Structures are given as structure tokens and as C-alpha cells.
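thought: fold this chain, then report.
action: predict
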Amino acid sequence: MTYEEFNSFCASLPATSHVVQWGGSHVWKVGGKVFAIGGWHEDEEARFTFKVSDIAYEILQEQPGLRPAPYLASRGMKWIQHFEKPGLSDDDLKDYLRESHRIVSLGLSKKKQKELGLNQG
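observation:
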């Protein structure tokens, strides 16, 4: 997946916003909370970081091309970084980005979720 494909996919998810920060990273938020980060350094292979469930974290951290996300995981957060091949297929990466969006959106207040039209049903 390229950064362009990553940005396009994240933009397709409901109630998202995009900022470029932290040295040029593509940061995607839902309700003001980060759910996905693309890149850290432009001169390296594309890297994608996302929040996961406890179970997914235990499974994914051992997979080739994946690792606990630098900085975030060291603070006890369950974030994974896809940093090299083989990593995840584009379809699997999209599934995890979609799930990260859902996990983060569920952490928003019920009022904020309703305001954004998330998790209603």
C-alpha cells in the first residue's frame, strides 16, 4: 500500500480528519483521536501504524514485517506498525485500519459518537 492509497482509504471511513504532523506523518483521527499513522520518515519504505485489540496485538507483534509501534507500544498502548515486507496484505491492512477506527471511535463519549453518527445501531 502506498501513502496515497492509505490516505484515500482512511478518508473513506466515517467522521475522519487528516493532519500532517510529527515530521511529515499522515495522521488520521476520528473525533479528534488518532486511529492511524502513515509514515515517520519519507525516505523509508511505507510504514503504517494502527491501534489493535489485546488479542490482535499478541498475534501481530510476532509476524514478519510487523512490530509493536515504536513510542506508542513502549507506553503500554496496543499499537502495531507495519514496517516492511511481508507484513500484511493490502486487504488485511485495510481490515485492521477499519478496526482501529472502530476501537478508537468506541472510546469517544456517547454524545460525541452520536454527534458524528458513529456506532449507532
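thought: worth noting. Residues 3-109 form a domain with the Aspartate Aminotransferase, domain 1 fold (CATH 3.90.1150.30).
final: C-alpha cells above.
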